[in-house]
């Protein structure tokens, strides 16, 4: 697709509010036209993501059966969420679960899932308004894996500090119960992630699921922000054009904004299972490599200035109520890792050498 054609297509789609079609490859017969689907109206997620207070509940489902759901057409499985409200009243909410993900789905004791809430059964509960959010749960029932959850939550919170154009996330305290045996599998922290369609509605945008976006298709500032943020956290496991751990939002004027998510392979977390792509010039996830698209250097300068402005607020996240849940040694190592970033961007020459000159994207 031509550089400019992507943006023009997005502009038309954003104004029309239609779903994004796939374009037939050259020489192929166009696919049979299907009746256009009416875009799903996002739910108002209510108060859920307006608070950072952890939500405590029990999730009961057939864990053994869920672990086996690894095919292309994974079914929805039944489960329940139970919790006690501040007045001491117990609540039970039916919920559906479906596995998702790639690496975690293959390797984790409890697979990553998407939850499906019904309006009727969640009304009057803290979960009312949620539709099908992602549940980022522990990979293994182990203290270090729980720390990975807390570390990833901090990266979403840092994004929120830097820009509202990011996923909101909320900490959960979950007791996982296997319905087949009635036994508790684990009691661990987890994260609920704001759904893309809800985030788009909050920002007055629409979600775009179309691969192939290049630098010229993107809003220059947010293009630079995506690359610098990933460099800041030491994440190379992403792609804008491939829509890998990256979402696109289209504004009504046709500009497209990339939004990073899913950071467990980042150097800031430094998970024991995290690896780098063999095609890259780095061998460890703690090594930083700028993989963003090349764009106007002045936009990178603006983004770096934003990171410097927000430095104290970012570091403060590791001292507040959520930050204090983290292992002090991990907090120290993480802040030292951020110190290295701030040393790199201390002056314009360093920024030009380490970021502008190292960009791997093509116009």
In short:
The protein has 363 residues and is of the alpha+beta class. It has helices at residues 3-16, 63-67, 103-107, 119-122, 143-162, 196-202, 220-233, 297-309, 311-316, 328-344, 348-356, and strands at residues 55-61, 77-84, 90-99, 113-116, 134-136, 169-178, 184-193, 206-208, 246-250, 256-260.
Key terms:
363 residues, single chain, alpha+beta, 2 domains
Question: In words, what does this structure look like?
Answer:
This protein is an alpha+beta fold and 363 residues long. The chain has two domains: 48-196, no CATH class; 205-356, no CATH class. 31% of the residues lie in helices and 18% in strands. It is built from eleven helices and ten strands. A hairpin with a 5-residue loop joins strand 6 (169-178) and strand 7 (184-193). Helix 7 (220-233) crosses helix 8. The protein is globular. Mean pLDDT is 88; it is low at 18-38.
**Could you state the order of secondary-structure elements as H and E?**
HEHEEHEHEHEEHEHEEHHHH
Q: Gyration radius, to the nearest Å? A: 21 Å
How much helix, percentage-wise, in residues? 25-40%
Structural class designation = alpha+beta
Topology, pairings included?
Layout: H1 3-16, E1 55-61, H2 63-67, E2 77-84, E3 90-99, H3 103-107, E4 113-116, H4 119-122, E5 134-136, H5 143-162, E6 169-178, E7 184-193, H6 196-202, E8 206-208, H7 220-233, E9 246-250, E10 256-260, H8 297-309, H9 311-316, H10 328-344, H11 348-356
Parallel strand pairs: 1-6
Antiparallel strand pairs: 1-2, 2-3, 3-4, 4-5, 5-7, 6-7, 8-9, 9-10
Helix pairs in contact: 7-8, 8-11
